[in-house]
């Protein structure tokens, strides 16, 4: 058409660059709004104690909204105009995001996500249309590719914000950004030229000439003639004749592209884990996939300057097909499969950029948004069919990683058969090979600095008279597990690899040795993490952790509880109310007992009128706060970097909260009449917190060091002149655990938990390393 020819012949004016820029930023904000839920899920799940299926509903309601938006809302652009629809959709998005930030429960949040999804689905089809109309044909592929990177960048920004400020603040930021783009759009985004030329709203010619003027192009004298077939209506143009063939081809292309995208998205993180990259090393599947996506779309954009988009899109699909095929062939070799999965990610993103650039042009202007919207909506179905790891296994939809786990487990069985297991004889545990047990799943550390692997190993059996076999109901995931993987315990404990990790365990008694009298098969129990001998001086004084003849399942090279069954001893079992869900309390076995132990030791110092600081209100700290509130009349001051953690602390007993923003030592002094606190519990003890904790401690006060990793530097003069005390704390005693369970069963100490299936241990460890877990991660076999 004439107008398009004018644009194609000229360069891009500043106005056109601004239009493309606005579309890109809107897409960035869309990416933020869409992807935010995936990163927020764990925080939301903790705050509201959600089940897996509730989290799944939250994640899918946004996607359902997008599909509905593309199918039902996007076509409105062909009737009311692209610009008004974009404004309405942005408003819907902003409302959904704002309401989500103050959401009171999962149902409300799901509705918010649906609303946001509808808004995004409604505009994602129209924006590339505006974008490409204002771009000369030769630059179109490149501009659309640039535009497409916006979505991925937006997701990355959301992920960053969540790790720093928590999910509510991030949703609020998304709402503000969306609102800002609503204003920018209202002020500066023009209507689609083709829409004006073909739908011909009142004053169309004047508006077109105004826009041409802003592009420094000559005005046109009349609107171009309408091709006759467009008078016959939307459905006819999109669905009949040549349109039907296009529809079939385009819909299939979108379907395959989306299936490929989700295939890469669900496999890459798992393959990364399998090849041994831990989140502690700063590599995560999501990040890699985003980078691959940006690389793919930019590559497409660069090539589109030199080659026709249609050819490039075809090549991208061919490359994606080859990558798929390769991935299928090399699935047994993790590194090769990973490379292939990344290649799939890059090529399907390039193909997506090509489709988005080309699709609008396939339809006459009057039905462009409808045609592209329907194609995208249909493509979303492709996402559902993406072969997740596990393939066509019967039964419930298999989770990511199943097939690979299977390969690994089979390899593990082979290794086990070729070698005898020798356990070190300690604490009355008989050493013997135990190949005869039934196979069970266990999370085993094979190499330091690599993810543990879910293997099949023989079930443990009682081998000494005081042995107890526990069927695990919940195993806590702890920062100590990350330290173990990093090799920090290698020297102190000299464990022999591989072994099963997991030292925060609760479950049901499954079998007992002939000398066990304190528990029976079927009892619900939580386990003291270190089974002790009961005979040495430390044991007789009740100091279980200092036992001369103890072992530490999950840490010392003895198999721990991230498995279906665990071997421990009678002395480690604390019996619980039979109705207790072990997964609710498992982490009290280490995180809980450690916090409680320090508070319990400090009790004589915390008479009414005193003050106590809890530095670090994470997994341990939030239990420390509850124990202090339950046992003392001291004023409780909580210091933490994370506003979410402070919010939680205030709701469970903190009298005052102080953000760790650099002025926190002064803030604590101000709250304590300038003296500092009588008792400071340092649950962090690294990265400078240890020194802050010392500075916050009042003269004659006591600093209880619970966290570890840093170094405390104290001039002896200060120690002597002010008579301050520094007290170390290592886990806790059996009695501490028993007392803590009394508090827990009375509801005075509750643990905030996020549950993962046992098979997803690597993901749980990543989430912990990346600070995505509020409260405590629990593996449930
Ligand atoms: Zn622990
Ligand atoms: Zn002992």
UniProtKB/TrEMBL annotation:
GO terms for molecular function: alcohol dehydrogenase (NAD+) activity; transmembrane transporter activity; zinc ion binding. Its main location: membrane. Keywords: Membrane, Metal-binding, Oxidoreductase, Transmembrane, Transmembrane helix, Zinc. Pfam families: ADH_N (PF08240), ADH_zinc_N (PF00107), MFS_1 (PF07690). One of its GO terms (cellular component) is plasma membrane. Its cofactor is Zn(2+). The chain crosses the membrane at residues 55-77, 84-102, 108-130, 142-163, 169-190, 247-267, 287-305, 317-346. It catalyses: a secondary alcohol + NAD(+) = a ketone + NADH + H(+); a primary alcohol + NAD(+) = an aldehyde + NADH + H(+). Residues 19-420 form the Major facilitator superfamily (MFS) profile domain. Its EC number is 1.1.1.1. CDD domains: arabinose_DH_like (cd05284). It is a multi-pass membrane protein. It is found in: Cell membrane. Gene3D superfamilies: Medium-chain alcohol dehydrogenases, catalytic domain, MFS general substrate transporter like domains, NAD(P)-binding Rossmann-like Domain. Belongs to the zinc-containing alcohol dehydrogenase family. PANTHER family: ALCOHOL DEHYDROGENASE 1-RELATED (PTHR42940), VACUOLAR PROTEIN SORTING-ASSOCIATED PROTEIN 11 (PTHR42940:SF8). This is alcohol dehydrogenase.
